[in-house]
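Next comes a concrete protein, fold included:
___
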Amino acid sequence: MARRKKVYEGKTKILYDGPEPGTLIQYFKDEGGAPEQPGLTEGKGVLNNRLSEFFMTGLNAIGVPTHFIKRVNMREQMVRMAEIIPLEVVVRNFAAGELSARLGIPEGTPLPRPIVEYYYKDDRLNSPMVAEEHIVAFGWATQQDLDDIVALALRVNDFMSGVMLGVGVRLADFRIEVGRIWEGDFMRLIVADEISPDSCRLWDMRGVTDRTDGQPVADPGPLADPYTELARRLGVLPSNVTHTTKPTLIN
């Protein structure tokens, strides 16, 4: 068998040349996706492959374009080759993590509306937050691109929030990456990379109950073992994969 050519390797995934022009094979590793979760987590790559397939397929079905083509095995999926815009696009529905620390808003506070933030994708700089002025000035994206990215991110948020709520999970915030593809002379933006617990902050709603006056007796907490538990609730858990891990939070 011919050795595959590696195109890129990150913390959580490896990209190889695909079997067809304009495609890549995306391999999901077991390594953690954030400083809060270093090292190996056995089976995480298998579950993230299934979960990202589930979310990307759902987005494609409602007309939100993604790079996903098909899952090819337990750890790999075929995706469309795209020019990745060097930004992490973060959508926040509730105050948490870095936003709470930066603005002094108590963790768990509902935001007046979803907030979209941008972080320059560079591990050497620890992915600093940037404004639209930086993005346009440095040529990472145009103003029209940013308008389209916001619209894309909010559609992803509507879909993801509804899916998560349906299985008793609150989507506090998440991040996506966006890529450019060309169809003839026409350029379009698509959701790329992955959507999985590595890129989402998930809170469990099933432990929250109400008193007779309608006030909650407990606040939602992080979803325990988000990979296995989320896959189980969504009905995509492979029967031969079990492990224990901790949630991965985004900054």
